[in-house]
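Our working data are protein records whose layout never changes between entries. Instead of coordinates, the fold is spelled out as a row of discrete tokens. Here is such a record, shown just as it appears in the course material:
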Amino acid sequence: MSSPVPQFENKDLSGSTGQFVSTVGVAPISLPAVAANVVAYALVRCGTDNTPNTKRLLYSFDGGVTFGTLSAGEFVGWPLRGGITQIQIKGNVAAVSYEVMLNFEPSGEGT
């Protein structure tokens, strides 16, 4: 008789992933644009094509209260807690390129 698959493995296969690639200016934007499912994990990367090297990408996991800073090519990946449905990013100048991947909990979970 085979053992049942542990529940945590089933949960790891559920949910969805969103990918966001564009540029941002000094005004913060929210990703995703419309809050929906809870974000389980965020990966934020400052594009390698950001020249001059003084361009920075700022990110916030707390609703825009505090921002971390990334230089060209740097990234941060972090599991999020507390029912966060959006992250915020902005540039220190206009046209800062970014790449963001978000793993979302299945609808109705994580709240």
Notes: The first helix runs from residue 7 to 12. The CA atoms of residues 14 and 51 lie 38 Å apart. The mean pLDDT is 91. The longest strand covers residues 16-24.
